[in-house]
Design brief:
By secondary structure, the protein is an all-alpha fold. Helices cover 83% and strands 0% of the residues. The radius of gyration is 20 Å and the shape is elongated. The termini are far apart.
């Protein structure tokens, strides 16, 4: 049983899609976490870190 799991893990790691799949899962998780943090941010935190959270649409447009 253990050898079968070890072989499955080895085959999975050798697969072409293993690392990109992990990156997709990590990016979706990060996006959901950032959306949750953004919805619960306090006004004081926006004032304390204006470059991180307080740019708004004008700042995003300027960056583009």
């Amino acid at each position: 049983m253990f050898n079968r799991i070890r072989q499955l893990w080895s085959d999975l790691r050798a697969s072409l899609w293993f690392v990109p799949g992990l990156m997709i899962v990590a990016s979706i998780t990060a996006a959901l976490a950032i959306i949750d943090v953004d919805s619960t941010i306090e006004v004081e935190l926006l004032a304390a870190f204006p470059r991180v959270f307080g740019l708004g649409a004008d700042g995003s447009r300027g960056m583009l």
